[in-house]
Amino acid sequence: MPPGPPLPKAVQTPLQWLARPWWMAAVRRRYGNVFTLRDQISDTGDLVVLADPADVKTVFTGSPEVFHAGEGNAVLGPLVGPHSVLLLDEEEHLRERKLQLPAFHGERIAQSIDLMREATEREVGTWPLGTPFRLLSRTQALTLDIIVRVVLGVDDARRADPLKHALRTVLEIRTPHLLMWLHPGLARIGPWKRLRQDIARADALLYAEIAHRRAEGGLEDRPDVLSMLLLAHAAAGDDVDDAWVRDELMTLLVAGHETTATGLAWAFERLLRHPQALERVRAGLGDPRDPYVDAVVKETLRVRPVIYNVARVLAQPATVAGYDLPAGTVVLPSIGLLHSDDAHFPQAAAFRPERWLDGSPEPYTWIPFGGGVRRCLGATFALTEMAVVIRTVLQQVDLRAADPAAERTKVHHITLIPAKGASVVVERRRRPTGPGARRAGAPAPALAT
Ligand code: HEM
After folding, report:
1. Cβ(387)–Cβ(294) below 8 Å
2. Backbone conformation region of residue 97, classed left if phi is above 0, alpha if psi is from -120 to 50, else beta
3. What is the predicted pLDDT for the residue at 178?
4. Relative to the CA of 386, which ligand 1 atom is closest?
5. CB distance 306 to ligand 1 below 6 Å
6. How close is the Cα of 410 to the center of ligand 1, in Å?
7. I need a labelling partner for 140 at 20 to 30 A (CA). Which of 6, 72, 410, 411 fits?
8. pLDDT value at position 434?
9. Which residues of the chain have pLDDT under 50?
10. Would the pTM count as exceeding 0.70?
11. Which positions ≥6 away from 141 have C-beta within 8 Å?
């Protein structure tokens, strides 16, 4: 095994779970770009961390029969269900992924830009003037609103609101921790019972939407992901039951909203502490092709990655980074370590969107969405949504940070959030908000790619 700290598992596990960025950066300083951490949660107890682009490439381009991602996500099973693309591996995974990919192509996503902008205008219209609030809570509500509309095609608030409420309840409790210990014996007590009830409530609403869509017909003319999935299954000759479709929808709703909400909160947290960058975004608001906002999005996801590592479980023995690793080892291509390496990003700790205007970084150095056959299905969607939301918010309001000090990074399950939830104050409204307030024919924002 690669070298690593000699501390016992009982010490390393909480460090890894609670202080990931600090702990992993410290271990890299001591052991370099390949090291082993010990952990109580994985089967073999060995996590091999990879922070050299060549080794990350080995994993991302390696055989899906060797590098399993689904196995590592099993803890999400009770929430996303057995048909979830997150949980599958090999053939089954590729098949499911291929069915969903067309729904996330650039031109499909471009059709959702108006919806994203209108949802943002509505949301910003509810923000208080002059009082600090946690922007992260608001971006969570906003990205949930957007993903529910895009995935389910629900416009009617009477149907969308109960579903959003049920989903937030499921996600707000410490879901991964609870799910880890969720087994039939526990299901009848306390928080686990509540969790099951909350999931059941969300499920009932999802099943109602599936039934509604099947009954209504006319799927070809509908832009939502649910309609596309039903058509794709039909074309593939699948006898797809509602439980399967439910798993697909739940996966997209869960994977697609909290991550994007966190990325957005960090984008504002960083921008409000970099007045020159903020000014530059503002200066480009009238030009839908201005590349600067896309640079801000990429730089935010680099300097404050939402997810610090991706994981693959070795289904067979494999040679990685020159080490012969046994089956069962977990390898972790480290997004956070790559992104914070001065060798790939000069002055890596600095927030400098300009660096994205001069070209692209070396392959396998910027990987906020993971890579290979498991790369985030919603990457283009997320990049587009972040750019649209940033532009729309800044067109509507002037914000300032509630406290000028930078917010620390806090580990929140698998995501890394701003410790104070990106606390902000609205100083001034720039234009009337609310439905219908946007000028007809206002320029469309640049499309991130
Ligand atoms: C800023 C926002 C987002 C970030 C940082 C992010 C990040 C990630 C990462 C790191 C992975 C794992 C990749 C790997 O293992 O190599 C992933 C997978 C995934 N993401 Fe995202 N994601 C975001 C937004 C979204 C959105 C908006 C959607 C859907 C609409 C989505 C759907 C998925 C799905 C379905 C997978 C599983 C892909 C597979 O296993 O084949 N994500 N995402």
Report:
1. yes
2. alpha
3. 54
4. 1
5. yes
6. 20
7. 72
8. 46
9. 433-449
10. yes
11. 123, 164, 168
